[in-house]
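Dear support,

We are seeing what looks like truncated structure output for some complexes. This example has two components. We would appreciate it if you could run it in full and send us the complete token output so we can diff it against ours.
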Amino acid sequence: MSKQADVLQGTLDMLILKAVSLGRLHGYGVLLRIQQISKDRLAILQGSLYPALYRLEHQGLIASEWGESENNRKAKYYRLTPAGRRRLEQSARSWNEMTDIIGTILGTRSEEV
Amino acid sequence: MRFAARARSWVRAVLRHARLQREMDEELRFHIEAYVDDLVQAGVPAAEARRRARSEFGSVDARKEECREALGLRLVDELTGDLRYAWRQLRRSPAFTAVAVVSLALGIGANTAIFSLMETALWRSIPVHRPEQLRLFSWVSGFNHGGNGSGQINRTAGGGYTSAPFSYPVFQELQRQNNVFETVFAFKPTGRVTAVIDGNAELLGSILVTANFYKGVGVQPALGRVLGATDASDATEAAAVISDGLWARRFGRDSSVIGKRISVNGTPVTIVGVNPPEFTGVQPGAHPEIFLPMRLQPIVSPWGENASVLADPDFWWVLVFGRLRPNVSTAQAEAALDVVLQRAVRAWLPDRIDRDPPRLALLSGARGLDRLSEDFSRPLLVLFSLVGVVLLIACANVANLLLARAATRQREISLRRALGAGRWRVARQLLTEGLVLACLGGAAGILLGYWIGDAIPSLLATSWTRAPFQAAFNWRVVGFSVAATTATGILFSLAPAWRSACIEINAALKETGRVGVGLPRWSRGKPLAMCQAALSILLLIGAGLFARSLWNLTSVSLGFQPDRVLLFALDPPRTRYPDAQRHAILDQLHQRIAAVPGVERATLSSRRVLGGERGRNSVHPDITTPPDQPRSAWFNDVGHDFFETMGIPILHGRSFNRLDRQTSQPVAVVNQRFVREFFPGETPLGEVFRNGDRILRIVGIVGDTRDRDLRTPFPPTFYRLYLQGSLASHGAMTFAVRTAADDGNVVAAIREAVRSIDGALPMFDVRTQNEQIAATVSQERLFVTLSTAFALLAVILAAVGVYGIMANTVARRTNEIGIRIALGARRERVLWMILREAALVAAIGIAVGVAAAMMLTRYIQSMLFGVKPVDPPTIAAAVLLMLVVALLAGWLPARRASRLEPMVALRHE
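Here is the complete output from our reference environment:
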């Protein structure tokens, strides 16, 4: 496997929200979708996924229901709630802002100061 | 909103515990299986795929725990863990658990029982609709209340009088002119009436009620109808509503009781309804069985010359309730109706210039006509304090046991702390154990309290009277017990929990199982044993004072001979025996009963001797001038042979004899106190005095006797011959019979004799004079019984406490004692060393206890008799008993210490 980046502290929640915002997913599906979108460049520790899902559900940001998986097995599916959507937009905004600022800082050359 | 979502999710997780577990399992399993499938499809061998999936996922149990934590379940999980652990710990030491649970159950049970009694006797509202809206009418007047009537009158602080009853016309006026109450209604408890049901005569507790009474209290009948406006008219036959109790007892809950005709004091009455079971009237503790319309007053409870007092504006007897309108304050209502009262008094009672006009006062009606709280508030508060002390002792006992156990668990606790558990976490674990113990004890205690609640008032009942009240077991009582349980649980876990927090981990782990080293001295439980001794001495002194009071009471001189005297009551109804016929039937009964074989002498009296009744009547020794100030003495209307039957010595003159008749000059027999008070320095044989409108000539002087109860000193008393009394008199007469031997056959023979004269005349309240006397001290006896039982319990618990502490000390000091003995200490000295320590613990406790007792006993002064609150002999006896018990408890471990083999002791750990 190629070298993967670890998920930054505190961004897992945002990634999960983003993943389920594209359509309902089961836990394994969330993992796959993040890997797929990131083209396998991002690794999520499988163990930390579920506590994060439970925490988000506990906060009312995602909701769960039982359904059938692609290969006809019972699986628990998560989808975004309106509160989750608001949270996702807010997190994405502040993330973009932050990366913009940090990118600006990091891209600064000495003659620009 | 976020908070609401979390709360919802949390509650769901807690309540659907099993489902959450299952779903979590399923979800995680799905994840692993899906991953395995993907790996297999990617060409990994199945076994290798499974292994890799598992290892990448990590421990499923750890993941699950993290998930539960994410749901905010950590506290719940820890608590369940603690509870499970606590339960295992308790199961592992059944003896400890049993002792702790039993002592807590006794403590909490006693508290629950007393609280359930306080609930009925002091707090619970009467069972009517919205009782808080009811107001009881009463009046307050100056010294000259000038009233005639029936009902309890109390002195006010200002020297005046206050009482609840009104005259019927005044009540009607208050009712008519009221615009502040929704309803104004009246009633009168009228004691027992003779009812004949299906040919059998029996006595029923009765109450007279006005037509709007049921509307006023807002009670619906369980069967039939209640009394209403139609029942006020004399045109129809009188109707009655019976209690649920009578319906069950006498009619087996048969609905055909509606329309049944019975006779009440010889007058036909139709039963039209049955009260619901919860409605027992408007007087706590009283359970009238038959509710009759007010117009039956002349039949149910005749007063005065023409029996009826319904039209008499100056006979104050009827009790008035009002249901306050919403938005009207009590003060407004009082002001409005006071005007009506003043007008009525002025209009109808103009000739009484010696009367201080009564003012209207509204009292709370939520407890109805409440005599219970007045009589029982102090005794119950004292009992409540006693059981509170018992609970504290039980607490100290359990705390002691827990401390001893915590000492042996010190290594375990140190290990937990060393492995990373915080102080608070360990303390919480110990607190949980305490609460589990408290809950077990509390549950047992609530059951115990439920069982014994009614046993306490039934100690006040006699064969001829029922208990003054019954325990109420409701949510408030249970709430109190649960609160007491929780409080005790926390209280007795505090010491061990605190101690666990103080442990020095390193020191404790290095210790090789030896207990209690490195701890502050105070935490080894001696203060608890001192507390127990102090509280025990408090209870011992209390019990001693009560016992001495009872002893003093039962050994006061009575002034008469109570042995072999049998008492019973007969009440010939005035409807069947009007005027002179009443005297005739009583005299006939008297003579027939006196002739029964086995009866030595017989007599009768209007008032029971030592029956707890008050009865005073005016006395003016100077008959020529009008009285300038009211003077009165106790009186009793008695029959022939009264002094001879009761064994009261005749000192001068004669007793009543057959020559004293209705037509001859009214005579009186007086006692010595009477002479001393009204004819000081004389022997007033042949003298006369004024008693109301009668002039009585003194024909005899007799010895003093106790009258109302054993506490009251000999009262000045005069005796009148009932045959010379008013023809309008009424009420039951108490017959007294001196029998040749103590045997029950006489009762049957007397019953037969009464039946031969009138078959519809029930003979009731049969008891001996000694039983009657015992009944007057039943409350004192109750206190002796309970306080002695509590004190003994306390002493036993304290002894266990002292024993535990000393046994612990000896175990801890085994090495040291071994060295002392090895170095040549004499065994007696070792024995004394340990005993001295036990005695010191007891002595400090005793000193504190005695000091507390000396401060507290004055609150029970009014319940004592012939003994001061600080009574040196009682204190000395209590101290001695406590000291002996403590030394005995200390002696066992002390002897063990003195018999230690030095070599064994030195090798000890």
